[in-house]
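Hey forum,

I'm writing up a methods section and want to include a predicted complex as supplementary material. The small molecule is fe (ii) ion. I've pasted the protein sequence and the SMILES. Can someone with a working setup run it? I'll credit the forum in the acknowledgements.
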Amino acid sequence: MITKTPPATHLAFALAQARLQTDALFRLVRPEAFHDRAVPERHRTIFYFGHLEAFDWNLLSQATGLPSFHPEFDRLFAFGIDPESGQLPQDQRSDWPETTEVQRYNLRVRQAIDAFSDGVSEQMLSVAIEHRLMHAETFAYLLQHLSITQKDVPLVVPPPPGPTAVPTVIEIPGGTVTLGQRRTDPSGDKQFGWDNEFAGHEVSVSAFAMSKYKVTNGEYLEFVRAGAKPPHFWTWNEGQWHWRTMSGAVPLPRDWPVYVTHEEANAFAAWSGKRLPTEAEFHRAAYGTPNGEAERSYPWGDGQPDRQRGNFNGDRWDPIPVTATPLGDSAFGISQLVGNGWEWTSTVFQPFPGFQPFSFYPGYSARFFDGDHYVLKGASSRTDARLIRRSFRNWFRPNYPYAYTGFHLVED
Ligand SMILES: [Fe+2]
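Reply by user p_vandermeer:
Happy to help. Structure tokens for the complex are below, copy them as they are.
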């Protein structure tokens, strides 16, 4: 018989691991660049440095009744921003405290939390862990947009080109998919999920066809040559297109997935006479099976995510060729639905039937149900394995150009 470690111990360990990850990311920012802003629509780096601990404190101390030791920082670092266009943040560098002050706050928060975390619910600890891991991903793309003089990142040589992606369209018969997840697993244990993953429910999907591969930079280049605006990750230099990797620009890798906004993905789809998949179609293509067996946990089956199956879990900074991970193909033979870049869907981010916000964090999803955010599925190179579950939903505004977001095409 296998003895199970108590969940709280697992979670305390997972929180410690997640802290190591985010600490490692902040160490890549040069000290003098902590008060710089990587992209105009987001806070300065110093905010993220304080935010992870302030979030944990604000969340986890609620049940303890402990007094705050720094209410000003608890508030200053409480929430990120996602401004509508034309409403960029106007704060000044001098509006923010010194890095050393934030460092002291962070240390004190960690010590306090570790002293009482045995008494915190598993759900709240999971929220703290996954919140931190999501920031580890979003911070990676902010880091990518800092200039090479603002960070210390190792030079990474891109992988060699993969086998050429032969454009292939795969027919997917209609079927039933499960969106979201049940509140308990088959053995009756409570399962963790964010508020927007509930309630789990079934949806039927009509037959459609999907491209085997993610749309590549090479395919998108034809669209740019036909007059479309180049994606944010591209730069024109010395007479050719380049791609901005974490450590600098390289000649445009044509077999990497193109990273684009929802608007760009839609425009490319329309130009190609195709469209983006709905969230339910994504589920059918990724987790459905041709012979009607139960839906899979992952496109490749029920085995845990590993680097043979896809480009995720922070193994690499940058993308790899769209043909590079055939072991991660779905039952229908579609490649890289999970990994190597999030997948845009045509589905507006809305609550599932039976949605209930977390009482301790009511705005987590609800403040984005504004009709101006679209659902993304799958994972990017920087998505932690813990977040790679079928029901996980990501969302961005349709014109947000900085994230690791690509797409597959579908047709009826
Ligand atoms: Fe946050």
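Some notes you might quote in the supplement: The first helix runs from residue 7 to 26. The longest strand covers residues 341-348.
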